[in-house]
Structures are given as C-alpha cells and as structure tokens.
Design brief:
Ferritin, single chain, binds hydroxy diiron-OXO moiety
Length: 172
C-alpha cells in the first residue's frame, strides 16, 4: 500500500476513534443532565463512529498495510448546554469533512483509485452528518431558552428512529 495513503488512512482512523469518544462524552453528559433523548442519540452516534473506524482498520489491513490503533485524548466532561453540545458536534464534523477531503486529494495525487473509491462512502457520510447537525441546531435556535420546547426537543430525539450502526451500515 502506498505510504502516504496508508499514513492518511491511519490519521483518519484516529479521527474516527476520537469522534466516537467525543460523542460518548456528550452522551454521558446528557444522561447525567436528564436529557435521555439526546443521550440515546449520542450513544448511537458514538457507535456509528466506531463503525467508521473499524471499516478503515479492516480496509488498511486487507490492502496489505498496517492499521495503527491510536491512543485518544480525553474528551471534555462538561458542556455548557444542549446548544453548545450540537455546536461542538457540527464544528467537529466540519473538521472531519476537511480531513476526508484531504484523504481524497492524496488518493488522487498518488493515483490510488481503489482507496479513492472506498473513501467515497465517507464523503457521502460526512454530507449527511453535517446536514443532520445543522437541522438539529436550527431547531435549537428556534427553541431558544424555552424549557418546554427543550423538553419536547429531547423527547423527540428519544422517539426518533435511530438505527444502530450495524443495521444502518449493513452491506457497506
Ligand atoms: Fe465518521 O463521521 Fe462523524 O466524524
């Protein structure tokens, strides 16, 4: 496997692992603050990010490279409020999208069209994740500081049909 591509893929493994831990921290914070819907959403999201990481680990190893299982910095324990959580989520996803775009660029420079094809799944995934985070933030902006609105928002997230990662990604 091309060295530059392998390095970029390992860098992405670390980013997906960090995403999983970050959303796990958000889930735990939400659970401790009575926001059960948000907690459920974030636990599921954390699982999805772990799936994204595993998919990369397997790809690197199957293509003759060496996947490196990274150490991860501790994510925050506290968040200001619910809006702050989703603002941080969007900010984080924008960073991950930039990293995926960089990966695509390296694949093209190195003429690694197989990896380029594999990475397209992540390109679509980032589009969806950013759109979802923006929709949720728009709703939170409408709610403002209205407590009953916040309660309903959280309840809606709890009742939302969120597919576990292994089902949502079946076949990928
Ligand atoms: Fe892996 O999609 Fe978010 O970070």
């Amino acid at each position: 496997m091309n060295n530059r591509v392998e390095e970029a893929l390992n860098d992405q493994i670390k980013k997906e692992a960090s995403s999983s831990q970050y959303y796990l921290a958000m889930a735990s914070w939400a659970e401790n603050n009575g926001l059960n819907g948000t907690a459920k959403f974030m636990y599921t999201h954390s699982d999805e990010e772990r799936f994204h990481m595993l998919k990369l680990v397997k790809f690197v190893n199957e293509r003759g490279g060496t996947a490196i299982i990274p150490s991860i910095d501790q994510p925050p324990v506290k968040f200001k409020d619910l809006k702050n959580v989703f603002e941080k989520l969007l900010e984080h996803e924008i960073g991950v999208t930039a990293s995926i775009n960089n990966l695509v660029d390296i694949c093209l420079q190195e003429k690694d069209y197989t990896t380029h094809n594999f990475v397209q799944w992540y390109v679509s995934e980032q589009l969806e994740e950013e759109a979802l985070a923006r929709t949720i933030l728009d709703k939170l902006k409408l709610i403002g500081s209205d407590n009953s609105g916040m309660y309903m928002f959280d309840r809606d997230l709890e009742n939302a049909v969120i597919q576990p990662a292994n089902q949502a990604q079946a076949g990928n």
